[in-house]
Design a protein that fits this description.
The protein has 9 helices and 13 strands. It is an alpha/beta fold.
């Protein structure tokens, strides 16, 4: 259960994001607010949809490469940002604990209910694994346990694509600062492909992604005092921006919206046909991504794609002196 203090802290964080994003052009909100308990479970359903290829592609790579990843890294403690239900990560944990070897897995996620439930399951499934969950936003990393040179930090699912260029640079600087030389970083990234396939992955036929997107309105309504903000005033859409090489998920107003945010003393208006941008999902070229990692002191040592070439995993080693401070 989330404590009263945690609820208060989350409300203040949401209200700060609302102040910063809802009155921007276009209005926006960080996608971390998707992931209340219901949103986390909806996303888990999305990963099994036929249109949503990234999870299957990433799991394929992990099934083929987990032994190699652990051999190269020598990792004994695995840390995962935005772990969710750790569904794909079990492939790596199977290899990590093979033969009853002791190891540590530290999943970090913003959804306390899903995180703690998953941690309990994992502890039962892997008796030699010390599971150390942390309820936190991965924009603010807690100190990472484990010995220098033996840590492996995971950031899977293509979530790196949710950042703007500046946000991504700041995130990689934070990752580099959190790790010691000799530690490793494993990054999952979605790759550029046919636009129709990309749009379908974010606008599935049965509407699970639409429900996931609209749930954001319920999250806001529950977490901060507001009147006039109703989910029936919005519809989900996904749009490919070729110039920016990214999908945009949006909530488009189907009628004029006027919402009073009494907690922050502001009124928000959105005209019919205008949209709230709820997520961006950048798609990458593998070579450009490797160069970007190297520029932040994360030197790529290996990289793989699934057989179809839809998705990539890049393994990088933390070097002593990053070329960009």
């Amino acid at each position: 259960m989330t404590s009263t203090q945690e609820q208060t802290d989350q409300r203040h964080e949401l209200e700060e994001d609302l102040r910063e994003g809802f009155w921007a052009d276009p209005p926006t909100l960080p996608p971390r607010w998707f992931y209340d308990e219901r949103g986390s479970r909806l996303f888990d359903r999305i990963t099994s949809l036929p249109e949503y290829y990234p999870t299957r592609a990433e799991r394929e790579i992990l099934q083929q490469r987990s032994a190699q990843i652990l051999e190269v890294t020598g990792a004994r403690s695995v840390h995962e940002l935005g772990a969710g239900t750790s569904a794909k990560t079990r492939v790596l944990l199977d290899e990590l604990t093979a033969g009853g070897r002791p190891a540590t897995y530290a999943p970090l996620d913003i959804s306390s209910e899903v995180l703690l439930e998953t941690a309990e399951q994992l502890q039962s499934e892997y008796p030699t694994l010390a599971v150390e969950p942390a309820v936190a936003d991965f924009h603010h990393l807690p100190p990472l346990a484990g010995a220098d040179g033996e840590r492996l930090l995971l950031f899977l699912g293509g979530t790196i694509g949710n950042f703007t260029e500046d946000e991504r640079a700041g995130f990689l600087r934070m990752v580099r600062a959190a790790l010691a030389p000799g530690d490793h970083f494993l990054l999952g990234a979605d790759l550029v492909k046919d636009a129709a396939r990309l749009v379908a992955a974010y606008d599935d036929e049965v509407g699970v992604t639409a429900e996931f997107n609209l749930n954001l309105i319920d999250v806001i309504d529950r977490m901060t005092p507001v009147t006039g903000l109703r989910r029936e005033d919005f519809e989900h859409e996904a749009v490919w921006d070729d110039e920016a090489s990214r999908i945009e998920m949006r909530l488009r107003a189907v009628r004029d919206v006027e919402a009073d945010f009494t907690g922050i003393g502001r009124t928000w208006q959105l005209a019919k046909g205008e949209h709230l941008r709820t997520e961006i999902s950048r798609k990458f070229d593998p070579g450009e991504l490797r160069d970007e990692l190297a520029g932040h002191g994360l030197q790529p040592v290996a990289g793989w794609t699934d057989e179809a070439g839809d998705f990539s995993l890049t393994l990088a080693r933390v070097v002593e002196h990053p070329s960009v401070p």
